[in-house]
Write a structure and sequence with these properties.
This protein is an alpha+beta fold. It is about 40% helix and about 20% strand. The strands form eight sheets. A seven-stranded mixed β-sheet has the order 6-3-10-9-1-11-12. The chain has a five-stranded parallel β-sheet with strand order 14-17-22-13-23, sandwiched between helices. Strands 2-8-7 form a three-stranded antiparallel β-sheet.
């Protein structure tokens, strides 16, 4: 038996959570679903009466909802005005049967090569009438004899969305293009992104646990060293930097020379933390840039962004960069900086300061910077320069790291671990695609060389006529993301891993760049919808952006 779970997107459902102009009457079939079912000329499905009764209860509990009837937006409020009709349609279609045939369908192909199942209305009964966009799921069960059963789940609006996936139960093989389906998998996406590039943006509304999850990773990785565990509330490998709206240059982060009170260098908590990270090279050190876009990131973080791109792998396996602070500063103000940086006379600390005087302050190879981001009227939009250099993860309330119930179970307490996780879980091993390709198997390297350029060329073709076309950096990080996934999945097929990596890169680096009005984005979004058919996360986000475009005459990645 095989199983495919389809999350119903906006244009495949009659009912939506907000007004929409979508007047489609069919259900969109992704290419992977077509391949799973077989591209038949005559589809027939078995459906269960009980599923539709449950769906109607879910609909009533989710009011208000909206639908489009012949171009007229209908608001279904306290009393669902079509409930009686829907109950009657169930009774007429099923009669005295619990299971009925729903048949006589063929797939229609649009001009954009999208596949839809049309003709759903059967004597006043249509499965679309029972579907809520983003909250309804159809499970396709394919029996060994080729017959197909549809089972319906319609969840209330405060539940977590699933991800489209194919599961072949006979072989135990799971073909899924997403990282995972639960909170544990969400953490995996953080780790994979960090090993690709140690600069993350966590975006979402206030209160979803963005800052907390950074601290949790620090607790998870903090070794049992007294100097790092002398605070029960904050591990020594964690630093919270609160960004202020008046930051317009790097001085608040990197310090500056001053003549007030005599020549000296003003040291900041950020600089102290970077020097501290140098003392413990085998421990991941986490900087949480809280409310990072309260000020223009490309201004106060410019030096960091530039130096981040200068990282390179040395022959001893360590990663270095160009300096954030030049070496002569540490010679010029040696006595003062010894004190202000808490550099003692032990051999270890002396070696650290000798490196500062010789090389300047470079990005420690064990440093991970995570910026928390709120997108509202108090914050600044990100420039493409920032998004190009970061890995962006969108956190919704449904995806919050700690479910509400855990608060009352006492599971939300952060504490040191008896057996902390090692640095390999968090830190990158390579910084360039060429380095990753030299380590990967010959089969993987050959597959990537053959397929990645064409894949990205197709993506750029979809973005043609827009300022959002991608360049070398995205290719580099796609391969690095694949490399990180391969470490986690040594036996997975290269094709599946590349699809998973591409879906993630689209969500983290490509789609966050896209914003504009109807004139700019109407056609590119339609082309992108075709390109992302086999990438579930990106496909869902494109559908969301498309649905907002005619309503507001503007759309972007950010809700």
């Amino acid at each position: 038996m095989g199983k495919y779970v389809l999350n119903i997107v906006g244009h495949s459902a009659d009912l939506k959570t907000s007004p929409t102009k979508s007047k489609d009457t069919g259900i969109f079939f992704p290419q992977e679903l077509v391949e799973f079912l077989g591209n038949n000329e005559d589809y027939s499905f078995k459906i269960h009466r009980e599923d539709f009764a449950r769906a109607l209860v879910s609909i009533l509990s989710s009011l208000p909802l909206y639908s489009n009837k012949g171009g007229r937006i209908i608001n279904h409020v306290s009393i669902f005005d079509e409930a009686s009709r829907m109950i009657n349609s169930i009774s007429r279609y099923f009669g005295d049967k619990e299971i009925s045939e729903y048949s006589g369908f063929s797939l229609s192909q649009t001009s954009g090569n999208r596949r839809y199942l049309y003709g759903l209305d059967k004597n006043g009964f249509s499965i679309r009438n029972f579907l809520i966009a983003d909250h309804s799921y159809i499970t396709f069960l394919k029996e060994d004899d080729g017959s197909i059963t549809l089972r319906f789940t319609t969840e209330s609006l405060n539940t977590t969305n699933q991800t489209n996936s194919i599961i072949t139960e006979r072989t135990g093989l799971t073909k899924t293009l997403s990282a995972a389906e639960d909170n544990a998998a969400l953490s995996t996406s953080y780790l994979t992104a960090m090993r690709t590039k140690p600069f993350l943006l966590l975006a979402g509304i206030s209160g979803t646990g963005k800052s907390r999850i950074v601290k949790q990773m620090a607790f998870e990785s903090c070794p049992d060293i007294p100097a790092l565990r002398n605070d029960k509330t904050a591990p020594g490998n964690y630093e919270l930097i609160e960004v202020k709206p008046n930051w317009h240059d790097s001085s608040e982060l990197l310090g500056y020379e001053s003549e007030i009170g005599g020549p000296h260098y003003v040291v900041t908590p950020f600089v102290r933390f970077l020097v501290k990270a140098m003392r413990y090279p085998d421990v991941p050190f986490f900087v949480c840039m809280d409310e990072m876009n309260l000020a223009p990131v490309e201004q106060y973080f410019a030096e960091f962004l530039s130096v981040l791109e200068s990282r390179k792998l040395l022959s001893d396996g360590t990663i270095t960069s160009e300096p954030l602070i030049k070496a002569d500063i540490f010679s010029k103000y040696a006595d003062q900086l010894h004190r202000d940086l808490d550099i003692t006379d032990t051999d270890t600390y002396k070696a650290v300061y000798d490196r500062l005087k010789n090389d300047g302050l470079r990005l420690p190879s064990n440093l991970i910077v995570v910026g928390t981001v709120n997108m509202d009227e108090t914050t600044h939009q990100f420039s493409r320069k920032v998004i190009d250099r970061a890995m962006t993860i969108e956190m919704n309330i449904e995806d919050a790291e700690t479910p509400f119930v855990e608060f009352f179970d006492g599971k939300s307490v952060l504490e040191y671990k008896e057996n902390p996780s090692g640095k390999d879980l968090f830190l990158p091993k390579v910084v360039q695609a060429s380095e990753a390709l030299s380590i990967l198997s010959a089969e993987d390297a050959s597959y990537l060389k053959e397929n990645v350029p064409g894949l990205l060329h197709s993506l750029n073709s979809a973005l043609n006529g827009t300022p959002f076309k991608i360049a070398y950096r995205v290719q580099n990080e796609l391969i690095l993301y694949f490399f990180s996934l391969r470490e986690e999945n040594p036996d997975e097929a290269a094709e599946a891993l590349l699809a998973q990596a591409m879906d993630a890169i689209l969500m983290m680096k490509v789609l966050p760049r896209i914003e504009g009005d109807e004139d700019l984005l109407d056609k590119p979004l339609k082309t992108l919808a075709q390109f992302t058919e086999n990438y579930p996360q990106a496909s869902r986000k494109i559908a969301e952006m498309q649905e907002r475009l005619p309503q507001a005459h503007f759309t972007s990645f950010w809700p």
